[in-house]
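anyone seen this seq b4? input:
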Amino acid sequence: MDIGHIEAIALRSLAGAAPHPVAYAEAVPAHGLRGDLHADPLSPRQVLIADAGAYRDLALAPHALRENLLVNIDTARLHSGTILQFGTDVRLRLMFQCEACGRLDAIRPGLARAVGGRRGMLARVLAGGVLRPGDRVRDLGRLLPAWSDDWRLRVRQVLDAMPPGAVIEYKHLAHLAGVATTYCRAFPRMLKGLGPGYAAKAVSAQAAPDRPRWRGAGLFDDAAPASGPAPARLPAP
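predicted toks r here
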């Protein structure tokens, strides 16, 4: 079912840099958008999809939400586990709503509160290809496991997926759960609240290496890209 189209595309190549508009972007399966800061095989935050309506309603400056794909779709109504098809080739797995963090307040005081749940939806690339403004967006349905919008529940989801006998460093746990490393300070107390089995699964980087350390291999394997030839590599936009 068609639900909208891409209005604009932007990439960020460096941390702290503003997004820059591009005429097209290449989506790479299980990796993200080629040349973008957030392209990472083990990240649930490869692509940020934002609603053009939020820009109009809140009178936002261009790229204020730092999105990759600007669409004419109410992203607050999208659901984790849904697969969206863009154009004829690209398929994205919707992961969770992007939180309106305090960084938005540096753009305009009070912006994080004003944006609320309209920051956008984060996604991973399942099937690659070229994305262009004007590409139609189709909702293929909720075909994959959902991830929670609550970061605490995502941390638990990651821990539940760990191989038996392994541990994970706090910084990798934060990365896989899609939160900043500053959240690591909250992990010890939070994990104790989940129970002794959880507290023993995560350690600091300085802990003695008495057990194998897991960095997320296989975590997203239930979202393998569709079979078929790999898309041709394009020059950087």
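The longest strand covers residues 2-11. Confidence is low (pLDDT under 50) at residues 224-236. kinda curious what u guys think
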